[in-house]
Amino acid sequence: MNIWITILGFLATVFLAFVVGVFYGGFVRKITARVQNRVGPPVYQNFLDIVKLYSKKTAINHGWMQHLGPAFAITASVTSLMFIPILNGTGWFPWFENLNFKGDLIFLLYMMVFGSLGMALGAGQTGNPNSAIGVSRGLSQMVGYEIPWVLALVALMLQTKTTSLTGLLDYQVSNGTWMMFESPFAFVAAVLAMLGMFHYAPFDVPFAPAELSSGPASEFGGKYLALMMSSGSIFSFVKLVLIVDVFMGGASNLIMLVVKTFALYMIPVLYGIVSPRYRTEQSIRYFWGWPTFIGILGVIYAVFVR
Amino acid sequence: MINDKNSKKIVDIIQDFSRRHSLFVLAYGTGCGAIEIPPTMTSRYDAERFGIRGMATPRQADLLLITGYLASKTLKRVIRAYEQMQDPKYVIGFGSCTINGGMYWDSYNTIKILSDYIPVDVYINGCMPRPEAVITGFIELQNLIKEGKANGAQKYKENLEWYRENQKKVIKDWKMPDYNW
Ligand code: SF4
């Protein structure tokens, strides 16, 4: 009996992440359009795109690895989602328990990279030169933003003496503060790293439609592209909820969650709309500059000041 | 009821609706008409409000937009791009050059009638058509999809030999595989 409820909770969680993520994508397109003085597509446009791509009659693949690449990506997104407490306190869906364990923050650091690596393998098999360039750019950029991101999380772990997400949430709830104020340097470093994680404009180096023909995705059509788009939507929800959980004290109900994640999401989106694109080395240099410095400050602050 | 062949299932209705309202365009901009694509897509005429969006590669696109005259050299690339697109796929011929040669009607190295070489679902007349006309063409295509008449890809598969024959008349050094999936 219990296992069925768990499975139901799992499905409901994935569904929630998918719907919220896709709607956010639609809102982003709408906001971009408004900034550019256009009407823009309806907010449910991304649903139509995904349904259309799933209902394409053919989808070509060049071998097993290309077939598996998008599957890896969505596996990584869903697995990471299973470790993120959607709400603090009780679960958002009755009786559904997350898979949290001690040290899951470190596990998540690895798990969140897995999807990109799977995509890299998949894109590698297509043999398209644009994919290869896109993958190498994406992985180099990842080396850039992972450093401030890890530094920020390490600062938190040092400060709260816990490596579990639920531990961090409990710490914030019981002390009545947000880590955002407790550890401001780490928060700034994490937000700057987040700019890179979302791949919006100055950091859309790996996709670059104008020069790389959308990079790693260039040989993926039909249901593969649909899988990648759904995975991307779920994953952006995962990243947002993770940062809200870690820095903003989680959320006590779904409305609060949507408000907080949307406010957070607007940082990379609005920064992206008004920015051109960096070159790869500029973007890496950016992340190894101030964000890393602030991250180190955060660690020092966590060890010596608090 | 569900297995009834003639009644449209709810799934089909949803699929048709999304096919109609989400067209990923691959603009093949070699002809001079390509200059009308940017205003169609940007703030003045904003084709994105109909779900029409530019895409970078043929694999991801549904709609191939041939903007104007095609030299016999570029025809080869168009065929490759068209055959790499995934079903269901549509073609819009853009400008009078694709209809009857336009002002290149007596040119020695452009093709005259595009639908001899690849199946065209909608033609947009004009030299060059204004963005309003382009958007009208898109809407026309959406209506055709709704009525189930935009089946150029099917026609292409059924009459592949005929199309190949015409294509090989123009492309003398045919070094491509028989079908470039
Ligand atoms: S129809 Fe006119 S504008 Fe279009 S490609 Fe031909 S000559 Fe150029």
Averaging pLDDT over every residue of chain A, what do you get?
86
Name the strands of the widest sheet of chain B in spatial order: 2-1-3-4-5
Radius of gyration of chain A: 19 Å
Percent of residues in helices of chain A: over 70%
- Determine the most extensive contact between two protein chains: A-B, 33 and 29 residues
What name does CATH use for the topology of chain B? Rossmann fold
Q: Please report the distance between the alpha carbons of the first and last residues of chain B.
A: 37 Å
Structural class of chain A: mainly alpha
Overall mean confidence score, pLDDT of chain B: 85
How many structural domains in the coordinates of chain A? 1
How many β-strand stretches of chain B?
5
Beta-strand share of residues of chain B:
5-15%
How would you sum up this structure, described in words?
The complex is a heterodimer of chains A (306) and B (181). Chain A contains 13 helices and no strands. Chain A has 306 residues and is mainly alpha-helical. The model of chain A has no long low-confidence stretch (mean pLDDT 86). The longest helix of chain B has 17 residues, at 131-147. The radius of gyration of chain B is 17 Å and the shape is globular. Chains A and B meet through α2 of A and α1 of B. The site of iron/sulfur cluster has 12 residues of chain B, from α4.
Element layout with pairings:
The complex is a heterodimer of chains A (306) and B (181).
Chain A: H1 2-35, H2 45-54, H3 64-82, H4 104-126, H5 129-160, H6 165-175, H7 179-182, H8 184-197, H9 209-212, H10 222-247, H11 254-273, H12 280-288, H13 290-305
Chain B: H1 10-21, E1 23-28, H2 37-41, E2 52-54, E3 63-67, H3 72-84, E4 90-94, H4 96-100, E5 122-124, H5 131-147, H6 152-158, H7 160-170
Parallel strand pairs in B: 1-2, 1-3, 3-4, 4-5
